[in-house]
Amino acid sequence: MICLARLKASRRLAIGAAVAALLGGAALAPSPAAAQAPVVTAPPGPPEKIKIGVLRFVSSGGLFTAVERGYFKAQGLDVELVFFDAAQPIAVAIVSGGIDFGVTAFTAGFFNLAGKGALKILAAQAKEQKGFEGNAILASNAAWEKGFRDVSQFPGKSLGITQVGSSFHYQIGQIAALKGFDLKSVDIKPLQQLPAMVAALKTNQVDSIIIAPHLAKPLIAAGDAKLIGWYSDFDEYQFGGLFTASALATTKRSLVEKVIGAYRHGQSDYAEAFLRKGPDGKRVFDAKSDEVAAIIAKYVYPSDPPADGIAKVKASAIYADPLARLDVADIVKQVNWLKSQNLVDSSIDPM
After folding, report:
1. Which residue, among 209, 214, 190, 197, has the nearest Cα to 148 in the 3D structure?
2. Dihedral Cα 213, 218, 221, 227, nearest 10 deg
3. Cα(220)–Cα(198) distance, rounded to whole angstroms?
4. CA–CA distance, 245 with 342 (Å, rounded to integer)
5. Whose C-alpha in 9, 41, 127, 174 is 20 to 30 A from the C-alpha of 107?
6. Is the distance from CB of 68 to CB of 62 less than 8 angstroms?
7. What are the start-end ranges of the E strands in 117-175?
8. Global pTM?
C-alpha cells in the first residue's frame, strides 16, 4: 500500500518500499507474462458491500473482469460500480464518503488530497508503455486540413481536456518538454467531461484532444478526427491506480487486502488476454482474449452488438502490469511536474 500521509516538516507522498511490502516483489519490475493470482474462497457470513468509482474505459478492464468472474465475491465482497465522466470527481467522492474505492487516472487534485493524508494508492491501473498503443493524440478535421500533422506543431493550437491538472494536461506538458516548445503556447480548454471533449473535437471547436484509444478509434473510423500519434510513441506514463481513503485503509486493512487481491486477479486475467506478443512483435489474441473482451465490452460498449464490442476492446486494450505494480519513479515525476505548474502544493514531497 502506498501511504500518502502528512509529515512534520512537509506533506510527504511516501511511495516506494511500502509498495513492495504489500504487493509483493519490487515496486516495479515489468513482467513479460501474467502471473496468476491465487484462488480464494469466500469467508463465512453475508458479503460486505462496497462501492468502487470508475470510468467506462478499457483500461479499467481488470476491475470489470474481477467483478464478472467473481473474484470479489470469493473474497466475501459485494461490489457496486459507480460510473463517472472524469477522474477528479472520483477522488473527491472517496474523500466525501460517497464511494469506498476508485480506479482511475491520477490528477493534481488527487495528489493534493493525498498530500493532506486523505487518500492512499493501493495498486496500479494501466500504463503508457512503449510497444503498446495508449492514449491517442487526435486532430480535428479542420485542423488537419490546415496542416496539423505532428505534435511539434502544437504551439498556436487549442487542446480540449477534462480539467486543469488532469492526466491529459500532464501529457501535453510532457509532449511540450520533449519537443521543446512552451506549454503556454497551447490554448488549453478545460471542458470538464469526456463527452464534451469528443463533441468539441467533432465540431472543430478545438484543434486537438488526447484521449483513450477506445474513444479515439471510433472517432477515427467514423472520419470525425485524424490520428497524429500515440502518446506511448513519445513517453511512458503510469496514469492511474486503485486507491481509497486513508481512514478506510487504516481502520479496515483486512477489507483493503481483499480488494487488492481480487483486483490483482482481474489484472492478471487482463494481461493474459491482451498483452501477449508473437515472434513478429504483434499481439496475439485467442479464445481467452475474446472471453475477457466480452466482459469488458459489457461496461465500455454496452449498446454495441457483442461481436463489435469484443473487436473494439481488443483493438483498444492498453498496457497494464500483470501484478498491478506501480511505477513509483513515474509518480514522483508526475508530482514534481505538477508542482512546477503550481497545480500541486509546493510542500508535498513525493518521496
Report:
1. 209
2. -30
3. 11
4. 24
5. 9
6. no
7. 119-124, 127-128, 136-139, 158-161
8. 0.81
